[in-house]
Design goal:
Blueprint (H helix, E strand, L loop, with lengths): L16 H14 L1 H11 L3 H11 L8 E5 L5 H9 L4 E6 L2 H13 L6 E5 L12 E7 L8 H11 E12 L6 H21 L4 H11 L4 H10 L3 E8 L4 E7 L1
Parallel strand pairs: 1-2, 1-4, 2-3, 4-5
Antiparallel strand pairs: 5-7, 6-7
Helix pairs in contact: 3-4, 7-8
The chain binds S-adenosylmethionine (SAM).
S-adenosylmethionine (SAM) binds next to α1, α4 and β2.
Length: 248
């Protein structure tokens, strides 16, 4: 069930951590039934290509288990099991509406014995150390105020030499394209989203959160400070998205 329209949210750089968590929960509970459609539409279906690229890079070697953090409606977990027939996937999210929506897709695609979506918090993952070969998060880390805690948790639950992949929307390097993209994000996207969702403020938040996300080199330094090795950043679609790959 979707909630009623919400008022505007404060700018991302003026929210405290608790407020941000509450706003993120409010946003994803209120846009659930339009989430997949708007993802495809507003990214011109690039989101499908970005997730495909991510699952192609996954390497399974021991448990053949994949953990998808902030799974939303489960798209990355679904893509992973379709690309890697030998694995099983679990997806965690802290918005039950998103999980329920995803579980319907999984049932419709006859994947119930290979993908399990359930409630879970990225900053307190309810699994033992060294359980998964791979953990990943697509478009989730931007929404998590305590990034170090979430990334440390991802590292804890993978085996040594296990892999983490972070897919996130980023801003292109300064230049003409960056100006066009900023115009799209801040002016066009909220107007388009207004036509389709009961909560257009969610898409103003989206633009704001992308503009406030660490740069590629800042995010690499963050991964390095947590102790990941062989860190790589792959810019996608002229840098509006970046895939980070790192190992424990
Ligand atoms: C933009 S959606 C991404 C969903 C999905 N990964 C995808 O590729 O479409 C972000 C998701 O992160 C979830 N989320 C944000 N913070 C979280 C947290 N601390 N723990 C679990 N899920 C979280 C939200 O509920 C939302 O479903």
């Amino acid at each position: 069930m979707n909630k009623k329209p919400t008022n505007d949210y404060p700018p991302v750089n003026q929210m405290n951590q608790a407020q941000k968590v509450e706003i993120v929960m409010d946003i994803f509970s209120s846009i659930t039934n339009k989430y997949d459609f708007l993802n495809r539409f507003l990214s011109l279906r690039q989101d499908l290509f970005w997730r495909k690229k991510t699952v192609e890079k996954m390497r399974f070697f021991k448990s053949f288990k994949f953990l998808d953090i902030a799974t939303g409606t489960g798209d990355l977990a679904i893509d992973a099991v379709n690309m890697h027939p030998e694995i099983k996937a679990t997806g965690l999210d802290f918005v039950q509406n998103m999980i329920d929506y995803g579980n319907v897709k999984i049932k419709d695609q006859n994947l119930k014995d290979r993908v399990d979506l359930k409630w879970g918090d990225a900053t307190d993952i309810n699994y033992e150390d060294n359980t998964f070969d791979v953990t990943a998060m697509a478009f989730g880390i931007r929404n998590i105020p305590d990034k170090v805690k979430a990334l440390t948790e991802m590292k804890r639950v993978v085996f040594p030499d296990g892999q983490i992949l972070i897919l996130e929307l980023t801003t292109p390097d300064p230049g003409f394209f960056k100006n066009i993209y900023s115009f799209y994000l801040n002016s066009l996207l909220p107007k388009i989203a207004k036509r389709f969702t009961a909560n257009p403020a969610a898409y103003e938040y989206l633009a704001d959160s992308i503009m406030n996300f660490p740069t590629r080199s800042e995010f690499i330094s963050l991964l390095d400070s947590i102790g990941f090795k062989n860190i790589k950043a792959i810019p996608l679609s002229l840098g509006i998205c970046t895939l980070y790959i790192a190992y424990k």
